[in-house]
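### Sample
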Amino acid sequence: MSDNQIVDSSFSAIINAPIEKVDIPTWCFTLPEKEYQGCSPAHIAAGFTTAPDGKRMSINVETIGGSLMVQHYIETLGEKGHLILDSDSDVFTPTGRVTIHVTWEMSVKAIDKDRCEFTNRVQSFATPEMLASLDRQGIPFEIFRTQRQPMSIAHNKGETPLFAASIERFALRNQQPSKAA
């Protein structure tokens, strides 16, 4: 764990669909808001747009540990079975707004011809702005990290099987009927 890393959390769940039917980037960048909200009670809103350089972005709003977060995820890797998003997210705390860097990585690997394993990994890092804010409040970073980790880990653990189920529904809904010989 790097000096400014807050959490590195990874959980997996089964998707009951063939891996060739799974397309994580398409799922992510077309995810209806109600579907996003159904993946965690902490999820408030979701949408998608593009960054100034034209890269796809997923905008997510959620509450973790009592703090409202607005995440501006920019696609840094977009393959059907592997998506990496990076965000300098806004966190609204009782003492003001700060930023936190979050890397969200989703991937799948085949188990057999009809199933795959989905892995949802979230890493967060304190930005210099966040460290300065903690310092102004007299809060040692180690104490903040220790208190923040359980909430972030619990959030990821709860949303992972629901994301997997959503990706499964998306994959099966988008299956092409087989052609008659």
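The domain at 5-173 is CATH 3.30.530.20 (Alpha-D-Glucose-1,6-Bisphosphate; Chain A, domain 4). This sample (SRPBCC family protein) is used throughout the tutorial notebook.
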